[in-house]
Design brief:
With about 100 residues, the chain is mainly alpha-helical. The chain has one domain. Helices cover about 60% and strands about 0% of the residues. The chain is built from 6 helices and no strands. The longest helix is centred in the first third of the chain and has 14 residues. The relative contact order is 0.18. The model has no long low-confidence stretch (mean pLDDT about 95).
């Protein structure tokens, strides 16, 4: 198996991360989740990003996202799942990405 060029992973991350990240800061994401009953921006962020993991708890989200304070995550997860289901959140995220 051929080896990758030096820093290939970082270059790929730098090219793709703006595409991945822009949806979380788009007003379209807030609009989509607002229509589902979730309007707190931090709750929207965690629901949109964590939905692909299923209705997980704050420990899983904190571990998966690695740079958020667990107390912050715990204020929103798992409460977001009582407002919006993970499949509905994924759908909202995809609609927001399309609109963005």
């Amino acid at each position: 198996m051929p080896s990758l060029p030096p820093r290939a992973g970082r270059r790929c991350h730098n090219a793709l991360n703006p595409l991945h990240s822009c949806v979380y800061f788009s007003p379209d994401l807030g609009k989509e989740f607002g229509e589902l009953g979730l309007d707190d921006p931090t709750a929207v962020y965690f629901a949109a990003r964590a939905a692909v993991l299923g209705a997980v708890g704050p420990g899983t989200v904190t571990a998966a996202f690695y740079n958020f304070n667990h107390e912050l995550v715990s204020r929103h997860v798992p409460a977001v799942w009582s407002v919006v289901t993970p499949p509905a959140a994924v759908g909202a995220r995809l609609r927001a990405a399309d609109a963005t």
